[in-house]
Amino acid sequence: MAILVQREFRVAPADRAEFERQSREGLWPAFLHFGALMVAYGTWSFGGDSDVVLTHTAYADFDHWEATRAGRGAFYHDPAMLDETAALRLVYAERNRLVASSRARVIDLDDTLSGPRPFYRTPGGPLAEAPPTFGPGSVIAEWTHAVADGALDQFVTLSRDHLWPWLAAEGARVVAFGRDPLAAAGEVVTLVAYRSLAEWHRLVPRPMRDVPAGVRTAREQRALVARLVRGRVLGVGTVFGTTS
User: Fold this and answer.
1) pTM for the full model?
2) What's the pLDDT tens digit per position in 194-239?
3) Where are the beta strands (DSSP E) in the chain?
4) I want to staple 2 with a disulfide (CB 3.0 to 4.6 A). Which of 102, 109, 131, 169 is the partner?
5) Of 78, 98, 87, 99, which Cα lies nearest the Cα of 30?
6) Adjacent-strand bridge partners of 100
7) Taking a C-beta distance cutoff of 8 angstroms, is the pair 225, 10 a contact?
8) What value does the mean pLDDT take over residues 65-83?
9) Is 201 helix (H, G, I), strand (E, B) or coil?
10) How confident is the model at residue 204, as a pLDDT?
11) Angle (CA) 45 2 195, round 5°
């Protein structure tokens, strides 16, 4: 089971551009050598504290995550990997000095419903591809739902077969789906990328008079078995990734 680590960093406003640069030009490309994927970076536009910057990085599992830890992880003790990433490591060597503090949460991903495909890469093997992005100005909406007992399969079916295909047809993209193991039982998290804040607002769940009847019915049925706990919107703040 892949995991997505969402990490908040407290970085002084004056240092944020340099923090993003060292990440974009150094750390995140190095992670592609490790097989780890940074899929979303930015700040909360709505629903979260605006005084932090965030990364969302996918790993194959916790052993993979541990291997990427600077200084102690296996990738930092493999001579061949160190040779591959030598120039990149120089770029982000001072990155941690820009961080006052950080806090992380983990989401266990449903691999069949999530986009990232992280893997434990060995030196010399095919490099991981940079994940898709809509780039600066786009947003990632994070939705947390509390699903009724025994209704998870119904929630997934309604989402996968009706709501998410409609969003894709409208130009959005489901990034990840899973659950926070430290959250209440039954809570699930969905991350959806939109090309702009205006597109998010146009497509955000609400009375949808102009959508296909099947989509509207699926949304109404899903609301009966899953209560919306909260939603947050991340403004994407980097060009890192493969533009789609």
Assistant:
1) 0.95
2) 999 999 999 986 656 678 888 989 999 999 999 999 999 999 999 9
3) 3-11, 37-46, 53-59, 99-109, 132-133, 139-147, 173-179, 187-194, 226-236, 242-243
4) 109
5) 87
6) none
7) no
8) 97
9) helix
10) 84
11) 30
Tokens 């919306």 belong to residue: 228
Structure tokens at 190: 């969905």
DSSP string, 24-83: IIIIHHHHHHHT-EEEEEEEEEESS-TT-EEEEEEESSHHHHHHTSTTTSGGGS-HHHHH
Amino acid, res. 117: R
Interval 127-142: pLDDT, tens: 999 999 999 999 999 9
H or E element: which one contains 214? helix 213-225
**CA–CA distance, 44 with 78 (Å, rounded to integer):** 37
Residues 58 and 154 sit within 8 Å (Cβ to Cβ): no
